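Workshop exercise sheet. Pairs work together: one partner reads the sequence aloud, the other fills in the structure field after running the prediction. Swap roles for the next sheet.
Pair: D.N. / O.F.
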Amino acid sequence: MPHYRRTAILAFVILTALYLFTSPRSSSSTIARHPSGKDGVTIPVTTGRPSDTSQQPSRPYPPPRQIVNQKISGQQPLSEPKGKTLREKLQYQFPYDREGKFPAYIWQTWKYTPASGDFADNFRQSEASWTEKHPGFVHEVVTDQAAIYLMKYLYASVPEVLEAYTSLPLPVLKADFFRYLILLARGGIYTDIDTTAIVSTTDWIPAEVPRSTIGLVVGIEADPDRTDWAKWFSRRIQFCQWTIQAKPGHPVLRDVVATITEDILRMKQQGILRTNKMDKSVIEFTGPAVWTDAIFNYINNPSYFKMEGKNITWEAFTGMESAKKVGDVVVLPITSFSPGVGQMGAKEPDDPMAFVKHDFEGTDLLQKSTWVAADSIIGTWKPENERIHPEREPEKQEEKKEEKKD
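Structure field:
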């Protein structure tokens, strides 16, 4: 019996010792179970982070509870500047950076793209010349239908402009408006489909003029040095808009877009935005007249330039034979974009200052008007309001339709 007791006592002592050695010890770094109650996942109570920090990111654990707001239905548009004028909205959406580079874009517009079998053969060589002279540039021929979607994409944030563009009743008006709109939003070169690139745009500006000081390059279309110039042209010096190079957001483009938009919406409200009902001719409405006015307004605006003395007028550009820089605008002589017209000082297409040739394609263009002074023929320049540009051919058909309605 004593032997049995000793055995029992020894067993009790051994079990007690085993229990004491194998049980967890209390310390300040006590490990507790994960609040979720899942087995095998523990966290130090004092840190709030997983114990194996080498395998887990350093972030609050468990993740903080997210507050779910009231459900939002649909995409929320960006808020546009409230109480701003149209020009201020355009400036906000398309800021101007004079020191930036000229974008490597070439924009043209026509009824068909060159990939279409309906693209006229007489335009193929001239259209291709722009790609050949500008390798590496993005060259786009935008169709009338594609232009609508492009404008909706670019001007969705300025609904007034979009409404104005889609409200225009004639293709010629949209073709004019398109060039200003695309250059304001994207910059680069706009050129008519019937123009041929003679020299790359990289050589248009004199080498000694830093590109970072220029935002707009234009050429002279007409410099009629005669007393009856108003019978033939809308302005004494007229800047051409069949070829323009610009950096996006340039103030001249902003102004001309705003001016045309305001005129469109005004005529629409008055119920006269129809062929033969509008109170402005195409030339004054969207053509070279309003373009020329926008340029002169800009270079005479004290908000942009420090004005010294009298305003800059046509006299500063008449008889030019080389490029002239006014502020951040470079004006090229008439030879640059109108070589071979045979008057107003324009020289031939092989002249060093000839950069772009305009073919003035159209059905009745061969019937050119003739200028006669002192019994001598001094030129054969077709007045702008009598020209038929390729993009303006549908205009006569639209006019006939409107006349039948009336």
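Discussion prompt: The chain has one domain: 86-405. What would you look at next?
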